[in-house]
Design brief:
The chain is an alpha/beta fold. It has one domain: 3-Layer(aba) Sandwich (Rossmann fold), CATH 3.40.50.720. It contains 7 helices and 9 strands; from the N terminus they run βαββαβαβαββααβαβ. Helix 3 links the parallel strand 4 and strand 5. Helix 1 crosses helix 7, helix 2 packs parallel to helix 3 and helix 3 packs parallel to helix 4. It is globular. The structure holds nicotinamide-adenine-dinucleotide. InterPro entries: NAD(P)-bd_dom_sf (IPR036291), Sc_DH/Rdtase_CS (IPR020904), SDR_fam (IPR002347). GO terms for molecular function: oxidoreductase activity. This is Dihydroanticapsin dehydrogenase. Keywords: Oxidoreductase.
Length: 236
């Protein structure tokens, strides 16, 4: 399928690692012009701006720099995210750790939308990283799940308010990235008895939603979990 992303002006947050990095590289491979906003250095070939997405003025300045370089925006991908104290029961989780997860995963996406929309081209596309954790959970994931549920909600709300652009989010299950390896350990990923996606596979989902091929899809959460959440409790 030709995605016709050549020459598109693409901004990716969190593009220095994992899924964001895979997205930045995949857009570059399609011939798009790519800018990356991250606390860390983005990949070669992309215009990099260092900023913290939770800081309103830092992010505003970073978006201005990225838009100045790109000459506008066709696609915005919100990948910057943290998992926080995964594995820690809520009752043992300090308030500042809860606040940090919500700040990056929720406020960071809201500020990104706020600062980029004035520059967004007609027919543009937002693709935000939510997670299957918006819909299902395991013990020790309450703040992260709450933050990803919020991304699904803000995706719908933005799709209604932002009339010039489509807004969708992707909701992958476990993806082999530095975040997942830090949370679960290398062995859990390398010897997993559950399916694990690659960051490149998620990037292809993001590129499809960013392209005009998906122009009828708006305000949706695309759950990519190998069908796990489709299983009922019925014993058959
Ligand atoms: N890895 C998974 O299993 C998985 C599954 C579903 C969803 N996700 C989501 O995908 C997104 C990317 O995750 P990943 O696994 O690639 O993680 P990662 O840790 O490999 O990459 C995250 C990137 O975000 C950047 N970042 C974090 N906080 C930031 C901030 N405040 N300001 C600017 N940049 C910041 C980091 O520097 C890093 O480059 C996250 O939103 C995550 O919640 C991950």
């Amino acid at each position: 399928m030709r995605l016709q992303l050549t020459g598109k002006k693409v901004l990716v947050t969190g593009g220095a690692s994992g899924i964001g990095l895979a997205c930045a590289l995949a857009f570059l491979d399609e011939g798009a012009d790519v800018a990356v906003i991250d606390r860390a250095q983005g990949p070669k070939g992309a215009f990099g701006v260092r900023a913290d997405v939770t800081d309103d003025s830092q992010l505003s300045t970073a978006v201005t720099k990225a838009v100045g370089h790109l000459g506008g925006l066709d696609v915005v991908v919100g990948c910057a995210g943290i998992s926080g104290p995964v594995g820690t029961p809520l009752v043992d989780t300090p308030a500042d750790a809860i606040a940090a997860v919500l700040a990056v995963n929720v406020t960071g996406q809201l500020l990104l939308a706020k600062h980029t929309y004035p520059h967004m081209a007609d027919g543009g596309a937002y693709v935000l990283l939510a997670s299957d954790s918006a819909f299902v959970s395991a013990p020790g994931m309450v703040p992260y799940c709450a933050s990803k549920g919020a991304v699904v909600s803000l995706t719908k709300a933005l799709a209604v308010e932002f009339t010039r652009a489509r807004v969708n989010c992707v909701c992958p299950s476990i993806v082999d990235t530095p975040m997942a390896r830090a949370d679960l350990g290398d062995a859990a990923i390398d010897e997993a008895d559950f399916p694990v996606q690659t960051a490149d596979e998620v990037a292809q989902q993001v590129l499809f939603l960013a392209s005009a091929r998906s122009r009828a899809i708006n305000g949706q959460a695309v759950l990519a979990d190998f069908g796990y959440s489709a299983r009922s409790g019925f014993p058959a």
